[in-house]
Amino acid sequence: MPSKKLDFKTGQYVVYPTQGVGKLMRVEEQTIAGQKIKMLVIDFERNHMTLRVPVDRAEISGLRPLTSIKKMDEAIAAAKGKAGAKRLLWARRAAQYEDNINSGDPMKLAEVVRDLQRRSPADTMTFSARQLYLRALERMAQEFAVLHKIDVNEASDKIEDILGIPKEIDLNALETESDDDSDEDED
How many domains does the chain have? Predict the structure, then answer.
């Protein structure tokens, strides 16, 4: 079966599975071990990193164009669903979540977000679960942000709003309110 030739253009946003969304800056030719190789130069501004991918290895590496808005909406809808079964030990589930995050596939990222999101303000997360959740959410938000021409943080907030994820409790705000209450009692 012949593979589909990926056609990327300078200035286009692309997704590299293990890094997220980057911008294709240019195609350059480099001589490596005496061979001339065409390289895609991708800038990941958020990670402060530049990656060079040989053109003939782009498909194998998993490099892909951005998904469509429709597919992103489907992924977010999937993240709204019921969490998957938790029969595996945490170490195995964590490894599976890591693989899903590094796949770069919006549906697999949505699975991680779905399984690890807090359903109520009282829900707690382990440190490692929170880190995996935040990485998956950020990867989704990077692509969502470019698709909707908004900031990544705004995209992350918007996705969490769509999913109905409760906001963090601001402990400083609670302290301020209780300080105000104590002042009134003294009068």
Answer: 2
